[in-house]
Amino acid sequence: MSVSAPVVDPAKLFSLAGKTAIVTGGTGGLGTAMTTALASGGADIVSIEVENDPNHQVMVDAVAKAGRKLSTYICDVRDPKALRATYQKLWSDGVEGDILLNCAGVQRRNEAEDFTDEEIEAVLDINLKATLVSCQEFAKPLLEDGRPGKVINIASIISYIGGKNITPYAGSKGGVLQITKAFSNEWAAKGIQVNCICPGYFHTPLTEQYQTDPKYKAFNDYVMMRTPAKRWGEPVDLSGAVIFLASGASDYVSGTSIVVDGGWLGN
Q1: Which of 87, 160, 169, 201 is flagged as catalytic?
Q2: In degrees, to the nearest 5, what angle opens at C-alpha 80 toward C-alphas 55 and 30?
Q3: Residue 224 lies in a domain
Q4: Would the pTM count as exceeding 0.90?
Q5: Spatial separation of the C-alpha atoms in residues 148 and 97, rounded to whole Å
Q6: Residue 163 to residues 159, 160, 166, 234: CA-CA distances in angstroms?
Q7: Does residue 226 lie in a domain region?
Q8: How many domains does the chain have?
């Protein structure tokens, strides 16, 4: 017996209208682009960010331009107790999250044997531990109320290849990939899809030096040679992946990653 597929309305399939997205690290170079994409798709934004974040106004302007509402909560995500308390404040304020985007992250570079305890702790605390805690706290009211939800973590192509001079970062991003799978294993049957995006090399204020400083010419040449697309990624290149994972279009996608790297891992 043949079964015809239903006609799909793409506008509804990818719509985020009426949704609320909670975002950590949304003021960063990649974070702002992904947050703007969520707002452009119809979601209101709840931003968890550090006090006096220098890029706060950029997010304010971007969300306003998309015609959505922005609420801001101040928290240093390195402090798990403060992060958990922030989520409790969200719930007591009546916030009902539908989407979680975890993109708070830092990078430190050093020889593998020379990383200090402080450098290791900073990277693991922000990139991995804060992501894990944020997933936990976001999911608790959804599980209690039986509501569906979408969790989007930000890993990296370094989750797969390791890299050089970034050992703690590699460990943290490998961990993000694994906790994404682990959370999905427990929550997918309850209507919460947990996935991650793995960006490659992207053009942001933090990577500007690698593309313009003659000191890093060899590295820039390597990126260009190794990337089939022959360019660094632009933050807007992440928009499609984040909207897909936040929308109903990904309701049967869970525990996996979307690599956005211009073909790097396939080369």
Answers
A1: 169
A2: 30
A3: no
A4: yes
A5: 10
A6: 9, 9, 7, 21
A7: no
A8: 1
